[in-house]
Amino acid sequence: MKYLDEFSNPELAKRLLDSIHEIATRRWAIMEVCGGQTHTIIRHGIDQLLPDEVEMIHGPGCPVCVTPLEIIDKALAIAAMPGVIFCSFGDMLRVPGSSQDLFRIKSAGGDVRVVYSPLDALTLARENPDKQVVFFGIGFETTAPANAMTVYQAKRLGIGNFSLLVSHVLVPPAIAAIMESPECRVQGFLAAGHVCSVMGTAEYPMLAEKYRVPIVVTGFEPLDILAGIRRTVMQLEAGSHVVENAYPRAVTDQGNEPARAMLRDVFEVTDRTWRGIGMIPRSGWRLSEAYRDFDAEARFNVAGMHTDESSLCRSGEVLQGLIKPHECAAFGKECTPRNPLGATMVSSEGACAAYYLYRRLELTAVSHV
Amino acid sequence: MSETDLESATSIDMSTWTCPVPLRDSPTIVMGHGGGGAMSGELIEHLFLPGFGPAARAEMGDSAVLARPGGRLAFSTDSFVVRPLFFPGGSIGDLAVNGTVNDLAMSGARPLYLSTSFILEEGTPLADIGRIAQAMGVAATAAGVQLVTGDTKVVDAGHGDGVYVNTAGIGVLDDGVDIRPARAAVGDVVIVSGAIGVHGVAIMSCREGLQFGTTIASDCAALNGLVADMIATGADIHVLRDPTRGGVAASLNEIARIAGVGVSLVERDLPIPEAVANACSLLGLDPLYVANEGKLIAIVPAQDSERLLAAMQNSELGKEAAIIGRCVAEHPRMVVARTGLGGNRVVDLPIGEQLPRIC
Amino acid sequence: MCLAVPGRILRRYEKDLALMAEVDFGGVLKEVCLQYIPDAALGDYVIVHVGFAIQRLDEASALETLANFANLGILEEEFGDGFTRAAKQAGAVEGVMR
Question: What is the interface pTM, i.e. ipTM, of the complex?
Fold first, then answer.
């Protein structure tokens, strides 16, 4: 597909890799913020092709992984209610709450459906006027415009049986929280390209300046990732810390103005708990006053529910690169990909899940045809 | 199978199927169709048998009495619950016949006889059942198997998804054929018979909540003809597997675990059609985990691989056959793919169904 | 986060008061909400996330990026470039935003 194949070209990838090998002279720890970027790194084996000097720390940018236990428990409670059609993106179904996941709610008779787009949930609401249709609105700034537009449409079209369970999270406060940690090892960031496609880049120079870290806005194809890493390493080697855009084909300084306007209308900033990290002030969005009627937490009376995160799980430290996954006592015992305790084991790209898988491989040599 | 059989079976236009009279007024399944009385009989006589066509044994008694073929028997059963019942390139009927035919063929057996058992939901249009029966007849004729016995039950509305089908099959193995996962050995070559991920993408394209437009149609097909061509080469085929649910990844992981070998894949050699790759990009899926219904994986000693590959490429269903990897001594019981960039990734056994992701 | 893929606009239409498009993802067609890129024309490529076009793809800069990759290899110049950037941190340099 155009814009995908060209950016996976092995020959150009080799040039970028060679360049990174030549440039890197010291050890650098770089965090890719976004789960999609982690996916590309693992999927293409990029981490094994980088020089030893470059360590990639997988960041907290997987919306599925960082959605707090409490919100998942609320989702499970709502999905189990009679008369509710609970709609979600597919990757959220397997994420465990305190005692079960959406799959189990479904198997117990709950009407849980996978949709591709929140607008599909709105369509279901119109087709089922006698049901309450709830969409699980998770995601970063990239996904928020879709959910915002869906609520906006619900209000405009008078679809009263639709509501949104909101758990939106924001990237810049997460970067700040990571850098504020006294033991922080991260020296440079690959910022999430698609977040910037929506939001633009204005929020980042302040962070780069305050924490003296290079931030490179990076895309998602293999060449994009390599270009982002290369530019970050170049800055680190040069002692520089500015914001660069390595994804100019899809990111402009100002972002998507109509989307940002919609976000300002539908959402307002709120404190948000991140699974494995804890509460980060002003790091999320909730529905604004004008759209509060569509808030599923209020409609289904689950706002008062409270759940604590697992005390065993040390995914917060893993996310910040402070410990390796196997240094957590629960790793491979209480916590496995089938029964994950925390964010980093939940998704297959999470640092713990990836480590769980690859440690088996590291025990043996790899040969190829 | 003779050409005339095939022609007579395909001459009915499935798209305009209507139920032949007399089916007692009701255009849909009612409880009486499962009662064993007159309505049940009519359903068999006027719907299933005409639908099955020449592939059916007309007597269809309580049990089929079959001539005993020489050699060892292969016996397999499978149940089909696919939604939707009809999808681009096929229906639950095609799957029910080809699925069991392929399960038999993967042991190297020649499939001979199939049973067909239906669980019908009250309210299902008879026309749908007719189309499904007809698809089964056409598929059975194409595969050269006979539908020899069957059963029908009806469940209350809301207790089924329209139609569930179970088929069981009997095949016969020639002397000397020994094809099973445990025979995979270090040094063996891994061949896939053609494009992967096609069936799964075709099903997803019409599944509620995910619909997308595509020209991709299911690859659902009976593989016993291809297998016969492969066995005829005299190659010492160690393993055959049809990578259905869980795709190529699940099949290779099973083989690796059973045989205690590692499997090493070369990603750029995987035959993945562009539209499959793009649909997977859109939904965040990995084609290695997407279901196939008309493909097989063959594992053979290296010295036999070129001869086998050539024979497969000469066979209608193996035209795009390709060598995709090898069995290795390293990383036993694991499947590892060399990526296009030259890195490695572990291709693990999927935990459950692959779901579209946003992340 | 944020699986988003590029696709080409085949058709524009209005549905439920919203601007929609039929988008071709290399042989896979999907309905996409175009409300956030309202001026995207037929044939334009947009980047799509969960059924919404979130940005237009700029072909010129894509080609330029690829050309830059193809021209990689002159290490000294690269380094010079990096040091220049570091030295010029106070001011705007090409490709650098402050």
Answer: 0.92
